[in-house]
Amino acid sequence: MDRPLADELRPTNIDDIVGQHHLLDKGMLFRKVIEEGHIPNMIFYGPPGIGKTTLANIIAKRTNMSLHKLNGTNASIEDIKRVIAEATSIFGQNGVLLYLDEIQYLNRKQQQTLLEFVEKGEITLIASTTENPYFYVYPALLSRCTVFEFKAISADDIKEGLKKAIKRIKYQIDDDALEVLATAANGDMRKAINNLEFIIYGLKKKERITLKHVNQIVIKANIAYDRSEDHHYDQLSAFMKSLRGSDPDAAIFYLAKLLESGDIIAASRRLLCSVNEDVGLAYPQLIPIVKACVDSALQLGMPEAYLPLSNATLLIATAPKSNSACIAYHKAASDVKSGKGLSVPRTLQNTHFDGEDNENKGQHYLYPHDFKNHYVKQQYLPDDLVGSKYYEYGDNKVELAAKEYWEKIKK
């Protein structure tokens, strides 16, 4: 084979892409927009090997636009300017589609260079990233793009993709071998195809692929991890609920299942979520501790990543719990969504203008640090929300101490 098998078998239409049902199933809004040919600026966010580049290629072909590909790891401003130059030339008369992989590696100046031409509509941008774009993409550029999350592909979908691949290359595979090959990919279709390619290179021509062949190249710890479509998310749910339920033994067990499958990212995210959602204000000092553990794990990689993540897991599972901050947020968000509190009180506004007819000139903001105990009573909520109660102190030591302190001061 002259080209890698994954490239040789890359889907050429939407129906051939496996996974991403929330975006690509018939009737989904994303698919309708693509099929209509009205391509907006988009950012694809998700792990590698799940179809982001493939879909960008398919979109470009459907639109007859001139497709350019850049990678954020090595793209320069000059590379970006060359794409922009074509957009304004005769070669770009059907429009220019720039597929920018790993956009998180572009610096601010490079992203600002793109922004001007994206804003003018001279370039249609499809960017992809494995990192959260809300943290890594320049806000002005992000605001001009629609973000779509791509998800890890289920073992069942990978199995179907492998069946199609094996049929095209005219090989046969045993059912148990197919099962293991699909689950060992951990949601990465490209990894599954690469493993398949390695196997067929070692076989006699048209020899049947068996479990013995597959077991020689896959990590056996992955085999029992994702047997069904929802099993992966069941593991994450069980991990999170064990942390919340203060069961250190169950929590460390599910952490081990996640890490032995190679899923450091999902385990880390659940830990960061749990320490904020479930521990919260009962032990706020734990939040930066867990963040430090996660950072250490990502720097170490496997197998040593289990060391800081085990510490974080047991700290969360045995810590006092409070979700008072979450409850307060949802109450406030409910009022925001219902359209309340549109006007900020005059005393809190950043700037104001007093007309000639205003008899009460001045902002009249009271600076709390000028008063005893650094507190003074004044209105902070908008007029239509005065008296609203969102936060209720939790029944843990830390929040009860804060409650006692402020009741004393405010009275």
Adjacency order of strands in the biggest sheet: 2-3-4-1-5
Uncertain residue segments:
220-229
Most strands sheet = 5 strands, parallel
- From the helix content, strand content and strand pairing, which structural class follows? alpha/beta
Shape, per Cα inertia axes:
globular
Q: How many E-type strands?
A: 5
Mean of pLDDT: 83
Order of helices and strands: HHHEHEHEHEHHEHHHHHHHHHHH
Helix content: 40-55%
Termini separation (Å)? 80 Å
Kindly estimate the percentage of residues that lie in beta strands according to DSSP. Answer: 5-15%
Radius of gyration: 27 Å
Count of individual helical segments: 19
Task: Give an account of the 3D structure.
A five-stranded parallel sheet has the order 2-3-4-1-5, sandwiched between helices. With 411 residues, the protein is an alpha/beta fold. Helix 6 links the parallel strand 3 (96-101) and strand 4 (124-129). Helix content is 49%, strand content 6%. Helix 5 (77-87) runs parallel beside helix 6 (108-120), helix 9 (155-168) crosses helix 11 (189-201) and helix 16 (286-300) packs antiparallel against helix 17 (306-318).
